[in-house]
Amino acid sequence: MSTPPAPPTRAVHPSAHRVAILVYDGVTLLDVAGPAEVFKEANRFGADYQIVLLSPTGADVTSNLGVRLSVDDAVSAEPVFDTLLVSGSDLYPRAHVPDDLADAVRVPAAGAGRVASICTGAFVLAAAGLLDGKRATTHWKVAHELATRYPTCRVEPDAIYVRDGTTYTSAGVTAGIDLALALVEEDHGPDLARDVARALVVYMQRAGGQSQFSAPLQGPPPRSPALRRITDLVTANPRGDHSLGELAKHLNVSTRQLTRLFHDELSTTPARYVENIRFDLARALLDQGHTASQAAAVAGFPSYESMRRVFSRKLSISPAAYQRRFSTARRTSASQ
Predict the structure, then answer these.
(1) I want to staple 321 with a disulfide (CB 3.0 to 4.6 A). Which of 4, 279, 305, 317 is the partner?
(2) For the chain, how far is it from start to end, CA to CA, in angstroms?
(3) Region 134-153: what's the mean pLDDT?
C-alpha cells in the first residue's frame, strides 16, 4: 500500500533529537522497527529525530527473525544521545543478561537525556542497574521473573508503559509503539503525536484485545503537568485506590480543586475518568479470552456487578454478551 502524501508540516524543532537504539544478536526485530517507524513518521510532521543503531562492538547483528541489521556505530561515551532505546529479546528472560551487554547499556545511558526499554529490554536495563529502586514494566508473561530476579525494581505487570523520572519501560513488543508515541508527545505535544498515530493507522492494525494500548490517545491529554501525573497514575495501575480523596492527596490539593481540574481540562470527573480506563482494560481482557470475573478483578472494578453496570451503560450489553459477539465476529472474519 502506498504511503499517503504528507500534510503541511509544522515548524521543525530547532535542534535535532538524537535517538540511539541498542541492538544485539537475537534482538526482537519489531522492538527495533516499531519505535523507529514512529520517530521517522514524526519527522514528516515537523519533528527532527536522528536515529542510529548501536551494537556493543559496532558489528552488525542478526535479529530473532534471522534478518541482519546494519549497525551505525559501536557503543561509546560520545556522542551524547537525547534518547536511548534498549530493544528486547526472547533470550534474556530465559537466561541472565551477559555482562558485556549490561556494560554496553551503562555507557550511553550515563549521558542520555532519557533511557527506555522495549518489552524484555527491561531485563537489560535491570542488569545494568538502571531499574534499581524504580517502577517498571515488561511483557506480562515475564513480569514475575523480572520482579524475582531484580527485587529492588517495583514491577507493574498491568501497565502498558511506565515512566519513572527519565527512565521508561514498556510492555509487549507492540507497546514499544505506544511508548514511542508517548515520547513524541512529550517532545512535540499531543497534536503531532496523534497525527503520527493516525498516519501509522495504529488503531486499525490492532486486534480488539489491544484496545487498552490506545486509550491515552482517545482524547487530548491534560495540559497541566499536575493533572497529567494523576492520569498517568491511573493508566499505569487501574486497580489502585483511585478514590477522589486519594487522588487529591497525590497532588496535595483539595477534592474540589481536583474535580475542577478534570472538568476544565478533560470535561469529565475523576471518577468517570477512572471508570473509563478500567472499562477499556476490562474490554481488552474479555477480548483476550479472560472470564468476566477475571476481567473485573484485573481491571480494578470493585465487583463483577459494578463492571456489568458500566458495560450496560456504555454498550447496552452485558460483558458476557460483548465477549460472545466479539468471538463470533472473529470466527466469521477468519473464515472469509
Answers:
(1) 317
(2) 21
(3) 90
d(CA 22, CA 43): 21
pLDDT tens across 203-241, in order? 323 333 333 333 333 455 678 888 888 888 888 788 889
Question: In sequence order, what are the beta bridge partners of 135?
Answer: 154
In which band, very low, low, confident or very high, does the pLDDT at 78 lie, cut at 50, 70 and 90?
Answer: confident
Of 163, 115, 98, 112, residue with least CA distance to 137: 163
Q: What CA–CA distance (Å, rounded) separates 154 from 137?
A: 8
Instruction: Give me the residues paired with residue 17 across strands.
Output: 49
Cell 561515551, residue located = 77
Annotated active-site residue in 107, 119, 183, 193: 119
Task: Write down how long the chain is.
Answer: 336
Characterize the bridge pairing of strands 114-117 and 167-170: parallel
DSSP assignments along 229-252, one per residue: HHHHHHHH-TTS---HHHHHHHHT
Cα separation of 194 and 38, whole Å?
11
How far is residue 88 from each of residues 52, 101, 118, 184, measured CA to CA in Å? 17, 12, 6, 20
pTM value surpassing 0.90: no
Per-residue CA distances from 84 to 53, 160, 177, 323 (Å): 10, 19, 15, 40
Q: What is the full DSSP assignment across 156-223?
A: -TT-SEEEETTEEEESSTTHHHHHHHHHHHHHH-HHHHHHHHHHTTHHHHS-GGGGGGGGGGSSPPPS
Residue environment code for 275-298, b if the CB has 16+ CB neighbours within 10 A, otherwise e: bbbbbbbbbbbbbeebebeebbbb
Catalytic site includes residue 153: no
On whether the CB atoms of residues 120 and 149 are closer than 8 A, the answer is no
